[in-house]
Automatic annotation (TrEMBL):
Domain of life of the organism encoding this protein: Bacteria
An example Gene Ontology CC term for this record: membrane protein complex
Gene3D superfamilies xrefs: P-loop containing nucleotide triphosphate hydrolases
Keywords, sorted A to Z: ATP-binding, Nucleotide-binding, Transport
Domain spans labelled ABC transporter: 4-233
One Pfam family linked to the record: ABC_tran
Species: Terriglobus roseus
Family per record: Belongs to the ABC transporter superfamily. Macrolide exporter (TC 3.A.1.122) family.
MF-aspect GO terms: ATP binding; ATP hydrolysis activity; transmembrane transporter activity
Cross-referenced InterPro entries: AAA+_ATPase (IPR003593), ABC_transporter-like_ATP-bd (IPR003439), ABC_transporter-like_CS (IPR017871), ABC_transpr_LolD-like (IPR015854), MacB-like_ATP-bd (IPR017911), P-loop_NTPase (IPR027417)
Name by which UniProt lists this protein: Putative ABC transport system ATP-binding protein
Length: 233
């Protein structure tokens, strides 16, 4: 029941004469309904790994199986289709369409894959209600707080029932009280059975996950249960 299996994953960027080995043989296995935080200092390869896991980019070497399908040698179009169906992205900067309502923002992934309008609206409303925004569906991003905007982004991530929710520093632009609300929402989504991968450099945020994987210089330096799961001695 593995959702993510990477086997000796390498990513090398060419910069002029220089080769930068951003990932140097990552072996990672994530099961359905795990809640994993990926930590590491700046430049350690977190974004690169997240781009590969999220089917935004392909590895230089090694393989990546998503739900048992090898997705490491696909064309950009094939990757885009799998991304739309399998990955729900949540970003630090929300990445919402400024001129569109919350409802329309959440409908976008369904427009992309050709879902009929009536079903689109029904599903978008359902996920907006599930993140507590039932009364804000007609609001535009600039009429909402940061926490509400991130809830819209989370609803958009959920609307296609993805295999993985991939959240990159989701609280990076939020104050500490709102950050806790958003982390509580992720915990609720995890309880409901979602598989979550959270990229963060903040230990306090990583502790909301059940498993903490630390990357250093492009390799996994440690992989352990979060303190939340480790009994106090
Ligand atoms: P993190 O997200 O942990 O800060 P990154 O994955 O962004 O780490 O970067 C890992 C390494 O790869 C760094 O040395 C970075 O400079 C390099 N890198 C990242 N993206 C690119 C790119 N598009 N081109 C060249 N080098 C890159
Ligand atoms: P195909 O060449 O038709 O994509 P596959 O066996 O790779 O054959 O895929 C069978 C079905 O699974 C297709 O509908 C495809 O869109 C879907 N699929 C492909 N990759 C993935 C994936 N990583 N996770 C879930 N479904 C996928």
């Amino acid at each position: 029941n593995d959702v993510i299996v990477t086997n000796d994953l390498w990513k090398t960027y060419i910069m002029g004469e220089q080769e930068v080995h951003a990932l140097r043989g990552v072996n990672l296995r994530i099961q359905r309904n795990e809640y994993t935080a990926i930590m590491g200092p700046s430049g350690s390869g977190k974004s690169t790994l997240m781009n590969l896991i999220g089917c935004l980019d392909s590895p230089t070497q090694g393989s990546y199986c998503l739900n048992g399908h090898d997705v490491s040698r696909l064309t950009d179009d094939e990757l885009a289709r799998i991304r739309n169906k399998e990955i729900g992205f949540v970003f630090q900067t929300f990445n919402l369409l400024a001129r569109a309502s919350a409802l329309h923002n959440v409908e976008l992934p369904l427009i992309y894959n050709g879902t009929p309008a009536a079903e689109r609206i029904e599903r978008a409303k359902f996920v907006l209600e599930s993140v507590g925004l039932g009364s804000r569906m007609d609001h535009k991003p600039n009429e909402m707080s940061g926490g509400q905007r991130q809830r819209v982004a989370i609803a958009r991530a959920l609307v296609n029932s993805p295999s993985i929710i991939l959240a990159d520093e989701p609280t990076g632009n939020l104050d500490s009280k709102t950050s806790i609300e958003i982390m509580n929402l992720f915990e609720e989504l995890h309880r409901q059975g979602n598989t979550i991968v959270l990229v963060t450099h903040e230990p306090d945020i990583a502790e909301h996950a059940n498993r903490v994987v630390t990357i250093r210089d492009g390799v996994i330096a440690s992989d352990k249960p979060s303190h939340k799961l480790v009994p106090a001695t």
